[in-house]
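> tool_call: predict_assembly(chains=two)
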Amino acid sequence: MRATILHATRDIRLEEVPDPTILRPTDAIVRVTATCVCGSDLWPYRGINEVRSPRAIGHEMVGIVEEVGPEVRTVRPGQFVIAPFRYSCGECAHCRAGVHTSCVRGGQGWGGLDGDGEPTPACQGEIVRVPFADGTLVATPEVPDDAMLPSMLALSDVMATGWHCAVAAGVQPGETVVVVGDGAVGLSAVLAASRLGAGRVVAMSRHEPRQAVAREFGATDVVAERGDEGAERIRELTDGVGADRVLECVGTGDSMSQAFASARPGGTVGFVGVPHGVEVPIGTMFRSNIGLAGGVAPVRAYLEQLRDDVLAGEIDPGKVFDLTLPLDQVAEAYAAMDERRAIKVMLRP
Amino acid sequence: MRATILHATRDIRLEEVPDPTILRPTDAIVRVTATCVCGSDLWPYRGINEVRSPRAIGHEMVGIVEEVGPEVRTVRPGQFVIAPFRYSCGECAHCRAGVHTSCVRGGQGWGGLDGDGEPTPACQGEIVRVPFADGTLVATPEVPDDAMLPSMLALSDVMATGWHCAVAAGVQPGETVVVVGDGAVGLSAVLAASRLGAGRVVAMSRHEPRQAVAREFGATDVVAERGDEGAERIRELTDGVGADRVLECVGTGDSMSQAFASARPGGTVGFVGVPHGVEVPIGTMFRSNIGLAGGVAPVRAYLEQLRDDVLAGEIDPGKVFDLTLPLDQVAEAYAAMDERRAIKVMLRP
């Protein structure tokens, strides 16, 4: 089969690799229907995270189950399934508590070694071996048509991550929510805040196509300013009080500062961007009672609910995909996202 | 009247100062029945916070209303009142949201300039001018007897602060809670967690008298170890999982590290110690989805409920006072707390 391998900074290639096979009785083999490029894939692609040796990459996919191990109970060949960006056993204390990303058997995740030291394929390829299929995959009642593919694929990471940000921040009906970051996760966080009943959702974005998606997702206001000016605009919009919840969906020091500068006393900052150079302003948190919650999203905990919301037409998170390419153009997919020509690129094997 | 003035590091004196008088129609004058020394008073006393010029000190008191301004509606002369460690207008957006410590009219607090630039007395004295009496003070139905004084006085700061820590951390019935810090606030946090229904409350303390109070307050386990050993003991007590909630009641870098090392993935650290040299481990928070919430406690938000709990005999937070001295021995009170000869000292004018 073919799979995407990151060789070095900006050197990404689709290559022939051996087909994965069932290694354990809890495994499933899934043929990928669609996969995509994540903003976090750009960290190693850009060389900000070092690439020491060639590695398989990609952690988002939907597909059709081809084969299951003898102990798999909840999915069967022929079913369409959504895979979270981390696999999880579903049975340890952390999985049972809904923190599947801390699964004690989760190993290094897609493309790394699993808990037994066996390599797992990554998701930007044609076929994936899924460890702990029961604890990882969620199936749909029927195979969805192509129109629904983007929204199902969005649940694999970005929509569930935006949702986690809003849930971790504690968004309540009627509240004012500011979203920092207009990438696919930030836009998904706008949709999540809106779906959770926020009365006002302010998207901080200066890119018109992204502003348009934010408004489709329920943003009531758009603030194009950043830094001190951005914080001042948020104060103006909130009668000088600040936002009840701020969803930080980038992960840089600047975006975290923007988030804290936008929050009201007693408010909460939710965060889901992988932190790079973030210093938490503990003095501000103390003086103003601003909480900080979030982290790597336990997608599996939300997946059934979000799948049902997509099937019911309540949310349409697939709108974050503004470009679809065949898998053999994966290098162009990375370049398009790197250069911000695309919000998020779907890849079809 | 006499009031406590901090002149320089470890130079604390009771001195004659002018009696305060009503300055604004929303003021009240309160004659102090009891006041006390706070752990946070030790920061300037020890010279860790610089003392640039002599300043009145103390922010906890209960007393009898002597006089009220013409606009005061909720308290009247002769009533026994509890004063939170910050005064608050009760009417601004932050007060209405229950974050009274961010009151826009709160000025510098007791002993500093008020919102109009007028000095306010501090609380370790005989008479206090209370700005915004309606938004600040909470009265009891009757004047309590001396036996109840310590518990009423504890509501002024430490009990409400421990309560805030537990509430901010989101303690739920049945959960496992670890308390870092065995000062009066830490012990109060044990009581708060217990009152909120925690199934297991682990007090981290190596001082026997404090361990004893912790057990009286509902601690089910005591861990004397600190650092890596302390974290290992918490893991042992929780089947390797960690605590659902950790209440950080000190404010140092070491205590915050201890807190994060004790929390389970998906758990929350509550914090109420004034941060001194704290670096928040944002990478750990991200990877393990551990939240951080708390800050300077908005005592006024909890005061009616806690007063009723004391009156009903549900809680007895006054046990944190293990020494009572006349106000003219205030220097000895500071020394006793500084040298950890006393957990918390009550002063009677």
